[in-house]
Amino acid sequence: MNLLEKISSLAKRRGFIYPGSEIYGGLAGFYDWGHLGNELKFNIKQTWWRDTVQLRDDVVGLSAAIVMNPKAWEASGHLTGFSDVLVECPKCHKRFKADELGKKNESLVCVECSEIFKGKARQFNLMFKTFVGAAEEAAAVAYLRPETAGGIFVNFKNVLQTNRLKIPFGIAQIGKAFRNEINPRDFVFRIREFEQMELEYFIHPVRNNPVKQDAAVPPQAAGRISNGVKPQTPTEWLSYWVGRRLKWYESIGLKNIRLREQSQEERAHYSRATVDIEYKFPFGWQEIEGVANRGDFDLTAQMKVSGKDLNYFDEETKEQYTPYVIEPSAGVERIALAVLCEAYLEEKERIVLKLNSKLAPYKAAVFPLLANKEKLVELARSIYDDLKTEFMTAWDDRGNIGKRYYSQDEIGTPFCITVDFESLEKNDVTVRGRDTMKQVRVGIRELKEYLKKKLVK
Ligand code: GAP
Prior knowledge:
Blueprint: H1 3-13, E1 17-19, E2 31-33, H2 35-54, E3 59-61, H3 71-76, H4 78-81, E4 83-88, E5 95-97, E6 102-104, E7 107-109, E8 121-125, E9 129-131, E10 141-143, H5 149-154, H6 156-163, E11 169-178, E12 193-203, H7 234-251, E13 257-261, E14 273-281, E15 284-295, H8 297-306, E16 312-314, E17 319-321, E18 324-331, H9 332-343, E19 344-347, E20 350-353, E21 364-368, H10 374-388, E22 393-395, H11 401-411, E23 415-419, H12 421-426, E24 428-433, E25 439-443, H13 444-454
Parallel strand pairs: 3-11, 21-22, 21-23
Antiparallel strand pairs: 1-2, 4-5, 4-8, 6-7, 9-10, 11-12, 12-18, 13-14, 14-15, 15-18, 16-17, 19-20, 23-24, 24-25
Helix pairs in contact: 2-9
């Protein structure tokens, strides 16, 4: 088994991630998240929300509808421009994105059956179509959003007016997005239903630096803007957000990260510059987040189609303008997969997920040494009930202690607490750390504070 297979097998066995609709043979590109996977995703989203919205004065949240008036997608360019080039192998009939074909002696070949490719290519729009209301006719066609950003642009005026915001400010959103990917692949890396964490950060288009405003950011310069020095130009803001996002990845323990600037040909139709944040997956360096300078593309386009004024008026300078937008856009499932890849470790006698404790589904597990000793169970239960009020805590009284440690290591629980006979006399417990496997005795009265100090905030 390769590493990705090992991780997907653990993910299924322990209830992180199940193949979607498995009892019917599955549905490609769709996955269901079990109890532990759900907690992991929840923790990722929560730390992102805290960092991006709650700890800042200049960002507010939004939760827009998944289905919008299709005119919004006409305006955004997704109806015409959000497509991949689809090719079908004439021999094995497998479908690919054109850039996935292999090469042999300068000919393009099918990567499945090696047939030299002579088939026709066609544009394939990635948006899922649906119908609104009872009629299945053209007038009722709507789309599942392919990015959460759309809902932010159409609400720009509402949010601005109700929150008394001044530029620069951001609107953040976490929610589902759907793409009818031609070739879903690599477990939950490329799927058809996923969640995005997006920030649209609105800025003044040009300040003192009109010439360099659209210059792409050199990756090595990203994040250099230190605290206290306010970015001015779009390029500086792009750099600022790349830097902030790198810090966030560091804070959740992702190390195998690099930046890559997209070439002009790669960039989305709305982008003036995009820096990808990539993670080194077992299948190579791949994007987990894109930070783009979308310029004034979206607000201008929505104004044109809706006929509504989405400009910004600066009360102080009396200047009216269409703001530019810098967009850090991250995928929750891709980050969850990166986190699992980074954390997965096979040691001599165990498999362990060395998850950052902020992301671990359970922060601690409580065991009575023996399940049939009433006094032990009673004391362990009271500790469990108490810890549960502070953080996610697991209970396990099956099998022997070794098996329980093994089981918690495999799902990344940072601390295991055992109540034994000594606990009844001395009012203390054994606390065993996941990473060091070392055990210490801690007084029951100090236990909660002890664990809180050890767990990363
Ligand atoms: N609003 C900008 C935008 O959507 P994107 O680069 O197409 O940009 C942003 O997507 C992020 O969303 C990606 O970096 C990735 O993490 C996630 N994402 C996109 N397509 C995905 C897919 N098919 N499966 C899983 N995640 C995906």
